[in-house]
Write a sequence for this structure.
């Protein structure tokens, strides 16, 4: 199989002085003749970083949204300004209004920007793929669709609600991942893992039929994980025997340190501008 190249286009921190960083995530994936933009960061910053890294966003074949939070969708409107040819893969619930209601803090709207929702209404509908189930981009590349919540210790990772009053919990049913089958095992890319990183890996391996896990890349959303959840997560991750873990964005420094203690050199923290080759 051909080499798979994944570039950290937007991340909370940058590894390159000229690159900008923000609370967000975007991966540029080149694999098996496809160019895929996985998430778009929080703003038009993605365009600036693409220029620095010489990433041809206008050539993206697919744009996949892991879920409907602003820090993963906010850059899409700018990307569509230069790319009208791509197919956009997202779950219908990615369009829901969403709020973060932290006790003692102002309520914050964290959903997809309203201007982007309007843009998507005007976008050619034949190029929008609603991922209510798995979506195959090629024989060896697939978007998982909704993730089955099978673990008892994983949750969405924060006080997320569908209303500003905080009365309707948001279970983030739109959360999804993307997997790539390679000759050395499966690569799994996630956004924030609101459905649980263990649930995501179980479903990706099941869908692909693969036994070997080559790499896990993305936000693990363990920033607010309890000690009990961390222990259960670490134990479960060990059963997958991943060759490499590449946590970023919302994983949380304490969680990264715990993962490092468990997985040693297999744990590689990533920053914007890094290029991963498999």
């Amino acid at each position: 199989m051909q080499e798979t190249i994944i570039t950290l286009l937007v991340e909370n921190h940058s590894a390159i002085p000229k690159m900008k960083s923000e609370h967000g995530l975007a991966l540029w994936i080149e694999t098996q003749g496809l160019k895929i933009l996985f998430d778009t960061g929080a703003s038009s910053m993605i365009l600036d970083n693409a220029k620095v890294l010489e990433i041809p966003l206008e050539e993206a074949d697919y744009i996949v949204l892991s879920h409907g939070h602003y820090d993963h969708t906010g850059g899409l409107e700018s990307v569509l300004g230069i790319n009208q040819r791509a197919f956009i893969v997202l779950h219908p619930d990615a369009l829901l209004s969403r709020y973060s209601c932290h006790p003692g803090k102002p309520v914050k709207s964290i959903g997809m920007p309203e201007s982007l929702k309007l843009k998507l209404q005007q976008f050619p509908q034949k190029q929008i793929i609603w991922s209510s189930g798995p979506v195959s981009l090629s024989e060896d590349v697939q978007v998982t669709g909704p993730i089955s919540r099978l673990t008892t210790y994983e949750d969405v990772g924060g006080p997320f609600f569908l209303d500003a009053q905080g009365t309707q919990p948001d279970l983030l049913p739109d959360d999804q991942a993307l997997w790539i089958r390679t000759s050395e095992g499966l690569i799994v890319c996630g956004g924030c893992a609101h459905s649980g990183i263990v649930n995501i890996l179980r479903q990706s391996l099941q869908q692909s039929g693969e036994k070997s896990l080559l790499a896990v890349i993305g936000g693990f959303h363990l920033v607010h994980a309890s000690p009990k959840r961390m222990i259960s997560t670490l134990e479960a991750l060990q059963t997958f025997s991943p060759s490499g873990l590449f946590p970023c964005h919302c994983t949380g420094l304490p969680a990264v340190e715990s993962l490092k203690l468990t997985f040693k050199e297999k744990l590689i923290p990533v920053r914007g501008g890094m290029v991963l080759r498999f």
The radius of gyration is 17 Å.
